[in-house]
Amino acid sequence: MMERGKISPVQMALLMNPAISATVLLLVPAITAKQAHRDLWLSPIWASLIGFFVVFITYQLNKLYPKETIIEYSEQILGKLVGKLVGAVFLLFYLHITGIIVREYGEFLSGAFLQHTPIAVIIGTMVLVCSFAVIGGLEVIGRASEIIVPIVMLLYLFIFILLLKDLEIENMFPIMEKGIKPSLMGSIVPQSWFSEFLLISFFLPYVKNKKKGMKWGMISVISVMLLMVLTNMMNLLLFGNLTPSLTYPVMIAARYISIADFLEHLESIVMAIWIAGTFIKITVFYYVLALGTAQWLKLSEYRPVVLPLGFLVLLHGLWSARDLQELSHFLATSGAVYILSVQVVIPVILLLVAFIRKKVQQRKGSLQNESPINH
Amino acid sequence: MSLQSIIENSLLLLILIVIVVFLSGCWDRQEVNDLALVTAVGFDKKADEKIELTVLVFIPKGGGSQQAMDNSSSEGGPQTLIRSAVGITIADAMAKLQEKLPRKIFWGHTDVFIFDEGLAESGIAKHVDFIMRHPQLRERGQIFVSKQKAKEVLSLLPPLERDLSEVLRELGQHKLGLNITTKTLAQMLRSDSGDCALPWISILPPVEAKDPKQTIAYITGTAIFKKDKMIGLIDDSLTRGVLWLRDEIQLAVITIKPPHTKGYISVNLLQAESTLIPKIENGKWKIILKSESNSDIVQNTTNLDVTNPAVVKLLEHHLEQATEKRINLAREQVQKNLKADIFGFAEAFHRKYPDVWNKEKDRWHEIFPDVEVTFKTKNKIRRQGLTS
Amino acid sequence: MNLRRKIIKFFAETMNIKEHSSSPSGDHPVTDKDPLSIHVAENVITLESIYADCSDVMFRHFLIGNRTKAVLIYIDGMSNIEEIDKNMLTPLMRQEIETHFDVRTILEQALTVSSVKEIKTLEDIIKEVSSGNPVVLIDQQLQGFAAGLSKWEKRSIQEPSAESVVRGPRDGFIETVSTNIVLLRRKIKSPHLKTKTINIGRYSQTEVVIMYIEGIADKTLIDEVQNRLNRIDIDGILESGYIEEFIKDHPFSPFPLILNTERPDITAASLLEGNVVILTDGTPFALIAPTTFYSLLQSPEDYYEGFIIGTFIRWLRYTFLLVALLLPSVYVAILTYHQEMIPTSLLISVAKSREQIPFPALVEALIMEITFEALREAGVRLPKNIGSAISIVGALVIGQAAVSAGLVSAPMVMAVAITGISSFLIPRYSASIALRILRFPIMFLAGTLGLVGIMLALLTIIIHMCTLRSFGVPYLQPLAPIRKSELKDSIIRAPWWSLKKRPHWTGDYNKDRQPNGQIPSPAKGNE
């Protein structure tokens, strides 16, 4: 059996939240600020619309094929050859993305904290830990996220509260000075992140209470959006016009906390929290990759492919970009189009084709009903 | 079989990784005792566009607690250490400085940055870049401009605090002068007006009989910058006015001389809040400074009865006038003479009139000196202290 | 190649408890299921050969009613001699009995003993004698009988030293399983409290009793426990720990998956929550299955004192759990990699104290921790009178001397001491051992990768705990997966009148244990 575990809709929402937001909080505020300037806190709101859209589409697709993931039903919808091709596209895409994610993680840790440690070690150790979770299965991932995510959220709010005394609300004004365009432009990159919600197509088959799946999916989108708005707001109110020039604004914000001369230098706490969130994100993507590969190759068990895939992910992490500038440039420009086209356009096509097929079959069925011929 | 092969693989992989991780060593390990803890940094201008970088390093002397208890409490030798090096940029100087220090320079606790006058006049933006970019330096460090050379200032031995950086930090937090962190400075440099201000320190003249090094540097005023170059200086009483305009005033004692009486009344400021309200009327740019504050009477050398509400009202009126006068003096100097917008007028106009601002912003340095400033001050006297 | 194959086989085998297809024949002492011979003399010869060289097994030949030959077999020291004399030998030897009689008549009319049992096979005789029950074999009868008159020296009931409380009952289990059952019966008087006995151990024939409350405990759970116990094939069970290792779900996890306790009140409370209890003869430690991680952090006192105090102490325990696990590692990590995290003045004093120390922080921490562990182990074996004196004076003096000799720094001693004290806050010894072991890998990772290493280690531990199941119940329930009704009892300690539902492993039986609305209030006083 491929995946025996079942998770509850709450667990799914809980594990999707860091799966999207963990890396968003790192680089994206600066990228958004470059386009949106002072309106950067509006961008996530526009971007979340894509999130809702993707959740809706995935849910509809899952209603048509309740027990299968997107790799499996692509073949059913588009026929064996094209379906397999589409599946391959998805898998390669996810391999690439996972490599990018671990690279982002490695770059951050290396640049801010462990400068001399080779990036391969940083990435390798994290991939190894994630592989334990992936081998453990979906239930383990669900349970682990139930523990980790609330704690991460709480600590994150804690940082925000500690910074309250340093925030200056005037930095927010004037709102929409140049109209709506800057915030819309700034929302393109977050949109590519929100489209990651396509991942729930891999989880919905294993969710216990499917009706609530849609509801909790939406709740998850809202929670990610709120988190991003909060982050952008916090950065804006603290740094004002400085935000676009900071590489990792959230970390610098954490470094800025100083309460009673004692509670200072909290950036390592930020890092610790953030590692936990990234762990869930990498695990989710890694799991999707392993499960998808096993389903694509029609294997009976996905566990054997986990470790080899992990090695591949590590390699991709090292190869995906020459340096950090290239990476963030990619994410800010062509990356957004790339991600959106795979995660939004292809599922829409799938849904349309599936719909048309269903309609055709219904018509065929009704024609058969009119002329009673026994087969 | 699959279970077995998984166990096989993971065992081997685990062993490999463990070996790799541990045998090749820990790369980022730094022992505390291999670090030179830099608590303050000074930058001086040297000839040929060079910079002299001076660091104040803390010496952890004193070994185990037992030894300290056995010996007498005074320890021979100072607690801090000064080292300097010259380079083209700060980073360059830092590399040369490391040659002179057996321990690795650790910037994680650097709280104070001092620029000397010469460097301030030739522009500090490029040096601020180093502070913001380096991963170890904190954005919460405080920046000062000093009259004497930073190297001299850093070699002082303060009698009361642990070292000079502690002294300057605490003085900055009194908020009797400006208290600018690196982040604030960076924000000011990037703001709509681009001008900034930094606290100005100079060495307190030492007591005659003692060691001339046993003294501190203290904040005596504010250095005013146009963009990132220093153009002028205002003294500490004018600085109070600037603080009022920036809504940063916390400690102040205002002394007024009520008319028709002998003597003075001094009040101690408790809370103050001021806001800038910009107005553009008929092409004329105006700003109203609205401020409210509460004070307590702290010394009364007149014969007036301060428990009488009518008297208090009169005093409040005079207090407001005195405050406005003080603020105005400061504003005159900075706005008209030095022409530097360190109060945030530019942002205020930007926020309220974004379209007008976007049209006129290139002319700001012309408009600024002519902005008309009026005051709406309300200064309440809350209590009269413990006697009457 | 060979070695690898061996390792893998070893792993694979221990993952399942294989049923030994055939027990090695030969040295089996208990074989005969043969019925008794009708001649008592033959039986005696058989038994004497079985019990050859056992000088404590007594054979007392006597005549019933001055006519029929009979023999009394018992083990000296395990049977109640006075009762045997008074209530078995006296009536039998003095009685006038008809020529034709059978065992049943004797039992009904002559034997004034409350607990008797007919036995038909040699195996039964040996079993009864080994349990201390005297057996009487009668000539010309195919059956004998055994009387339940066992008595031996046993410990008095005292409070267990490792699990003492300030408020609560002070009784504890002892090594005799019948007394333990009695202790539980006195707490739960309902007839639904069932006891099922099995004997495990080829040579030890240890009596193992499964107890559960019918109607509360899940049937599948009971069956599973029984299955697993029946599969155990071992020479002897000397302690419940042996059983524990055989029936654990995850044999390689350092975390205890079955609770063991000496206290009857904990056991009774678990029974009421639907757990299954395993009592083992010869040890006072009862096993409770299933268990979750939170049970390991609970002390019965939480439930006896008020709920606000209970909640506070619980939070204290959770905090110190983290401290005990992470403090030395965090200390090493911060000192070695993240010096900017410490406030400046603190860093300076730490740097001062570390000036003379020749070791890097990680090595120093390891030395201190290992020494502390050694001291703790040694402390267990110190004679009681010297023990406390040595610990106080020794710790102070040794600690002070080490610091002034410049071997370790004072902050490190502090850190290790606090860690030690925090690990004592964990009520269950088995859990604290797990933590002690886990501390060391985390320290290594902290010394190599700093806080990143600690986070990775923590994540690995959390993943591991998420995969654990104890008899089908996820180990981290109710936090993962979340069950709202049970959160009340793990995060905080809700007052008794609000704990309305039983924990979910009771299956779907009997969810409600209390009706609503029992919060005390003045209005109810007058009803």
Walkthrough of the structure:
Chain A is built from 15 helices and 2 strands. Chain A is an all-alpha fold and about 375 residues long. Chain A has a single domain, classed as Amino acid/polyamine transporter I, CATH 1.20.1740.10. In chain A, helix 3 packs antiparallel against helix 4 and helix 6 (about 140-165) runs antiparallel to helix 12. The two termini of chain A are about 35 Å apart. Chain B is of the alpha/beta class. Chain B folds into 2 domains: about 30-60 and about 75-235, no CATH class; about 250-390, GMP Synthetase, Chain A, domain 3. Chain B contains 13 helices and 13 strands. Chain B has helices at about 1-25, 65-70, 90-100, 115-120, 125-135, 150-155, 165-175, 180-190, 235-245, 310-340, 345-350, 355-360, 365; strands at about 35-45, 50-60, 80-85, 105, 110-115, 140-145, 195-205, 215-225, 230-235, 255, 265-280, 285-300, 370-385. The longest helix of chain B is centred in the last third of the chain and has 30 residues, at about 310-340. Residues about 65-75 of chain B have low confidence and may be disordered. Chain C is α+β, with helices and mostly antiparallel strands and about 525 residues long. Helix content of chain C is about 45%, strand content about 10%. Chain C has helices at about 1-15, 40-50, 80-95, 105-110, 120-130, 175-185, 220-230, 240-245, 265-270, 300-305, 305-335, 345-355, 360-380, 385-405, 410-425, 430-450, 450-465, 485-490, 520-525, and strands spanning about 55-65, 70-75, 115-120, 135-140, 145, 195-200, 205-215, 260, 275-280, 285-290, 470, 475. In chain C, strands 1-2-4-5-3 form a 5-stranded antiparallel sheet, sandwiched between helices. In chain C, strands 6-7-9-10-8 form a 5-stranded antiparallel sheet, with helices on both faces. The longest helix of chain C is centred in the middle third of the chain and has 30 residues, at about 305-335. Classes of the chains: A mainly alpha (about 375), B alpha/beta (about 400), C alpha+beta (about 525).
